[in-house]
Amino acid sequence: MPTSNGSGIEAIVAKLLVPVAAASGAIVFVGFFFRDFVGEAVTGQGWVAISLLFFGSGLGYLAVLPYRIDDDDDPSRGYLLRVRRTNLTATLREFAGNQDPLTMGVPATVFAAFLLLQAAFPTRTSAVVGDVADTVLLVGGPLFLAAILLAVCYCAFLLLGPWGDIKLGDPETEPAYTYPTYFTLVFTAGIAAGLVFWGPAEALFHYRTPPPYFGAQPGSAAAAGDALVYTLFHWGVSAWSAYAVIGVPIAYFVYCRGAPLRVATLLTPFLGVDGLDSVWGRLVDTLAVFATIGGIATSVALVSQQFLAGVAFKWDVAVGTAGPLVFVGGLTLIFVLSGATGIHRGIRRIAGVNIVLFGLFALLLVALGPRQYVAEQGVSALGRYAVHFVPLSLHTGGQWVADSTIWNWSWWFSWAPFAGLFVAALSRGRRVRTVVFTTVVATSAATVVWFLLLGGTTLFVQQRGEADVLGAIAARGGSEAVAGFPLLAALPLSELLVFLFLALIVVFITTSADTSTLVVAILATKRGLAPTTGSIVFWGVFQGTVAVAVLLVGGAETLQALAVLTGGPFAVISLIGIAGLTRSWLQEERGHTSLVVRAFRRLPTVQTHHDIDPPKED
Known about the structure:
This protein is mainly alpha-helical and 618 residues long. It has one domain (3-612). It has helices spanning 8-33, 35-38, 44-64, 88-98, 101-120, 122-139, 141-160, 179-191, 194-198, 202-208, 221-235, 237-257, 268-271, 279-315, 322-341, 343-368, 371-387, 389-394, 398-426, 432-463, 469-475, 484-489, 494-524, 533-553, 556-565, 567-588, 595-601, 609-612, and strands at 3-4, 67-68.
């Protein structure tokens, strides 16, 4: 079967990465499972570097491996996500000429201004951004609640109704990827490291500070059940629907109406395909670039804290001030390399590793954790989640809801442009029903299982005193980043679990960061042109630089609040997209059959006595 060996540089890199991965892996293995042999020979910063070197070299090797030409046909081969490879001089020349000055210049200027202000006036800048974010979330709460509930309802209608039968592309167009690959790419890109970061922490926080909707006492058995219900609510179908209502309209207008792959394509029914290059269309893309970089840079910065907390917990060492910089710098190299090799190589392969590690870790939790407790609490939480879904979706609840639920919805909407665009890019040849099922139902199912397993286990060990996870969080200044490690230490095979958990941290954030790098490169490139390798490298390094700068000036939470503010505009844009898509389909898409009607038609016909022996007429 024909293969592509990539460039000569990639072949050299692949050969170098093998011994690096083997050597660093041997040290990590000895350090994890035979710690006495290492003792204090390796410092905290050394463990950070060696651990990341092991994970990074292994993932990098996967990214640069040759690939089969006919392996899962790349949807970018025609245009959409194609990466053009050129030499260095041509790359620099093309990069300078092909970038859209608005979508590139405005986000770069805003981030530079923010970092300067944060460095010069950290307290004042954080206070101003925090006050603005709090006001927007409190005042705009009804908008977010309405937008997310409408998104869920619209997705349910697309899943069951006649428009779900619409095919994204020509009738003969086949899906570019197998379904397992499609699900893996959608799930791993859209969730980032939120699963490993909040998996052990969110239910525990709601257990400590119960939601007012249920009114349970803090730390009570009732609070534990309520905590799981609210966790499922924050990470279930509502959250993932925000991605679908952005992704489906983009996919339809790209594959069925010839629009470009842009977030602004949502506005096609109002601006027309030619009008997407107007100021309004470019402003939407510019805001999408800003939201994507802000969200990814914040996630990289926060995840670095979690990884370093794990290193410090595991080896009882101080990582120092250079530890975060080493981690983010190494992580940037990984996701830049993955993004530059494209979807069909680095991005797809690392996503595959991600889903395997995710499944393995979940199975180990089932085998080693409190199965009966998790099963009982999980069944109860799922039932109550279904019963209370609509009331929870409409519950305003004052400051607690603003700080928790509304903040979550705004954060998911701020990620929706990047995730929705990526979903659209992958969905050529699929039916709308399949896209919605994958983006909302399948991903929510995987997320719910994870939070029930990890959140339920955390509540179990906390309630029974087997581990004081809340105490560990308090000892670290209230940082939720440490929550997973005392939990895993209380379980059998803790060494293996901690190792897999650290690997998941690296792989999950890589699968989102490499995808976001590619998406930003697409949005920042002038219409009609594919992003070059130089463009992808630039935007990947830019995202990593913002994350490093945020760590240096101490503004991760402030940048996160700034990124969350973009959720408001995209909540509105999603509603506009729903309205425009509905109008287009009412005018142009007729004759499709709903899933309900199809199911009804397949029911067997039962003869009655009237059919067998009809009554005689007088």
